[in-house]
Amino acid sequence: MSKQTILVAGSGFAGVWAALSAVRAISLAGREGDVEVVIVSPEPRLVIRPRLYEAVLENMDPDVSELLAAVGVRHVGGLIQDIDVEGREATVLYGDGAVQPIKWDRFVLAAGSRLATPPIPGLADHAFDVDQLASARRLDAHIKSLGERAETAARNTAVVVGGGFTGLEGAAEMPERLRAVLGKDAQVRVVIVDPASQIGADMGDEAGEAVRAALVEMGIEQRPGVRVTAVDAGGVTLSDGSRIDAETVVWSAGLRAHPLAAQVPGEHDAAGRVIGDAFLRAPAADGIFVTGDTVKAATDDAGNFTVMSCQHALSLGRVAGHNAAAELAGLDLHPYSQPKYVTCLDLGAWGALYTEGWDRQVRLTREEGKKVKQEINGIWIYPPAPDRDAVFAVANPDFVIVP
Hints:
Blueprint: E1 4-9, H1 13-28, E2 35-41, H2 65-71, E3 74-84, E4 89-94, E5 99-103, E6 106-109, E7 113-115, H3 123-126, H4 133-145, E8 157-161, H5 165-182, E9 189-194, H6 205-217, E10 221-224, E11 228-232, E12 235-238, E13 243-245, E14 248-251, E15 255-257, E16 274-275, E17 288-290, E18 295-296, H7 310-329, E19 342-346, E20 352-356, E21 361-364, H8 366-380, H9 388-394
Parallel strand pairs: 1-2, 1-6, 2-3, 6-17, 8-9, 8-14, 9-10, 16-18
Antiparallel strand pairs: 3-4, 4-5, 7-15, 11-12, 12-13, 19-20, 20-21
């Protein structure tokens, strides 16, 4: 009898933890000899995407090959291009250009999300982003090159488009990044643009007010209520007809689920995510589990749903991986639940803002918040050491990391 296969698409937070949790469940059921876990991604690396707004980009893609090997997960270097739901087969584009299918008995879609890039004139040619490690490195190289250019107001100005977490954290980091290149006394200008009525409006009243006050304290200009209508090499044009001259434009406005999610039958939300059931199954696609940024799932009984975040991906991955293995190994399925919701927003030199609950009640600010953020970013979200027993101790589906 040939081995059954659990195929995991993606080695991000949800993908890695889905694979680890699946192997743990297989081990619990004593089925290691006849069920294998295979993870497909270009490289066996986990990109620490929540940190790509930072100035220092070292160790942002730790190698997980030893970790996967320690628990018996096989890594395949490539990209899944197509999902054949009926034939239970995925087409893989390998690194050498070859295209071959892989059969699966259970499929876990953990391919993540991508930055939404609308057809704004000049956006693709002139804006930067921190969505992927390569693009974050491109922005970093651009900022470092500014010191070689003639001083102008545009050279000293950065416009960050989007007032969500990535935009706020990137904008808060930008004054120090620019001064590190242009000089500590340089007259830098950082502007954050967002169509909402107030910057940080979706953070709620208390947290939003704290965000806006922090931006004022750092000298970051706020342009709410407007959209970018065009980008060129010298700046941006806004929907109110005004223009900001800037040689650095960073786009951070919105995410969409990976295109593979569109190949999964069933209901999808506005961001392209599959609406998953309580066990993170795709209801209209037998044998497929959806996790991380490719699924919209209820976090509790109060009407809250997952957001595209590392915080949710870590738990979603564990649950999806466990359940994919449980179906094959005869174990009980574990319903997904993640009722505790926290946020920790890095605000550069000001510190960080730590909140609890979906209403984002402020618990810690400034340096106290920064200590929590540094612990989250530097320790909690990184993959564990390649120790099978230690991994299994934290790969269970009800394990949740919270401050």
